[in-house]
Design goal:
alpha+beta; Tumour Suppressor Smad4; Rossmann fold; 4 domains; 6-stranded antiparallel beta sheet; 25 strands; binds adenosine-5'-triphosphate
Length: 463
């Protein structure tokens, strides 16, 4: 299909069909190493990250390429290439670029490798949700509206779904919305977090147990697969499911029946499973850290929930939502005038959860807007020594704004702030060493990683 004179350039994202579909050009990013090794990936609504790290979209075998070297993004304005702070730079001709619009077929140098975006066939149409909402999830960006349209269709089926995405991107909100849009909406929505449950409890929690199956099992207990019958079981952090339990979950999902711990018989269950993880499960499966057969069983429908930094178009609507949910409800006019532009300049490693917390803090301490995003950028490396204990007057002054909030909200916010300060202080004392900080805090390394994700903190030394 050749674009007519007035049609948009083929390498832009454009909504058509009265904003119900997205015209998605077919583009492929190709990187050729100096030895002639070629790696390729499609460039569509998700950005392509190029680097040597295994979590990159395009993993380039070139020692002069950084772990996360550069990023390509398809936007309504064209293809954008951004250097991610690489050591050896991203060169367009002789010029090192930080961010530039890139035309197709133009070669760029990353390390010693050549990167080119090639048109690869006809554009396709991707359905868009017309509303920019899916259950409680808000998203006006093309990326989220395309995701909502896909999830709406998947929700109507009985298929198992796998939601991938960084911590705080909204996987649980989406899982709940899938349940609410499914024929099972009148049944229970049950949540199980593999990452927050100790390994020896996971089995009895998921599959249940008989009386006397282990010390303390005084009564028989149905597992969550059975409890979610008629509804949906959301298994969060499925990547943390112990390897030895993975065949048992696979068998249960295949046979739609479950054997309680200590039992010899099988019981049928009727729950739909939606799973989520912040890990690259496909890569873990390839490395033997996750059962490949279970991965394929879970990923019948697999969706990637984009990070907030990839969809900053969503910021105003999300901020408005958090303001409106405040008690009493607030609006954008209650924020300092430069707040939205400051928020847009931030990278949001903790995603929507971090945004929600920042908005809550902005309402309490609007005068701190300029400082607010600075410590977030510096992360744990900037852990400051704890401030001296405040006197009674200072304590009362800090309490005043909290008194305007309902107890539960105020308590959650104080707890989150405490958790963050506690974590950064211990990481600071141990120079970012997670094992030592976890030891000092008396918790597992996994929990420290989870908390780091939750608060959007990147410890010193991590890129
Ligand atoms: N699209 C969205 N619209 C409105 N609120 C959102 C959206 N995405 C996330 N949130 C809010 O952000 C917070 C974190 O979301 P959620 O717990 O669903 O993230 P998650 O990806 O499941 O995180 P984790 O992997 O850490 O469990 C919640 O308060 C949720 O309501």
């Amino acid at each position: 299909m050749k674009p007519a004179r007035d049609e948009p350039e083929p390498c832009t994202l454009t909504s058509v069909d009265r904003d119900r579909s997205l015209r998605m050009p077919s583009l492929r990013v190709r990187v050729t190493s100096p030895q002639g090794h070629v790696t390729e990936a499609p460039l569509d609504i998700s950005p392509v990250i190029v680097g040597t790290g295994q979590d990159c979209t395009l993993v380039v075998p070139d020692a002069r390429v950084s772990r996360r070297h550069c990023e390509l993004r398809l936007t309504p304005e064209g293809i954008f290439l951004r250097d991610l702070g690489s050591k050896n730079g991203t060169l367009l001709g002789q010029t090192a670029i930080l961010e530039a619009r890139l035309a197709p077929r133009v070669a760029v140098l990353v390390g010693d490798s050549e990167l080119v975006v090639h048109p690869a066939g006809e554009p396709r149409l991707v359905p868009l949700s017309p509303t920019g909402m899916f259950g409680d999830a808000i998203g006006r960006s093309f990326a989220m509206r395309a995701l909502f349209a896909k999830l709406e269709r998947a929700a109507a089926t009985e298929q198992t779904l796998l939601l991938l995405g960084e911590s705080g991107t909204g996987k649980e909100v989406l899982a709940r919305a899938i349940h609410e849009h499914s024929p099972r909406r009148n049944g229970p929505f049950v949540v199980f977090d593999c990452g927050a449950t100790t390994a020896n409890l996971v089995e009895s929690e998921l599959f249940g147990h008989t009386r006397g199956a282990f010390t303390g099992a005084q009564a028989a207990h149905a597992g969550l697969l059975e409890e979610a019958s008629g509804g949906t079981l959301f298994i969060d952090e499925i990547g943390e499911l112990p390897l030895e339990l993975q065949p048992k979950l696979l068998r249960a999902l295949e046979a739609r029946q479950v054997r309680r711990l200590g039992a010899s018989d099988f019981r049928p269950f009727d729950a739909r499973v939606v799973a989520a993880t912040h890990r690259n499960l496909r890569a873990r499966a390839a490395e033997g850290q996750f059962r490949e057969d279970l991965y394929y069983r879970l990923a019948v429908v697999e969706v990637q929930v984009p990070a907030l930094r990839e969809r900053k178009d969503d910021l105003p609507a999300l901020v408005e939502r958090f303001l409106a949910a405040h008690n009493p409800p607030r609006s954008l006019a209650d924020l300092p005038p430069n707040a939205l532009s400051l928020l847009a300049a931030h990278d949001w490693p903790g995603n929507v959860r971090e945004l929600r917390n920042v908005v809550a803090r902005l309402l309490l301490f609007p005068e701190t807007v300029d400082e607010l995003l600075r410590p977030l950028k510096e992360g744990a490396a900037a852990a400051r020594p704890p401030a001296p204990a405040p006197g009674p007057a200072a304590a009362a002054a800090r309490l005043d704004p909290l008194l305007e909030m309902p107890l539960l909200e105020a308590r959650e916010m104080v707890m989150e702030q405490f958790e963050r300060s506690y974590l950064t202080a211990w990481l600071g004392r141990h120079k970012g060493n997670i094992s030592r900080a976890a030891g000092a805090m008396g918790v597992s390394r996994q929990l420290v990683h989870k908390l780091l994700d939750k608060h959007g903190i990147r410890p010193k030394g991590e890129p």
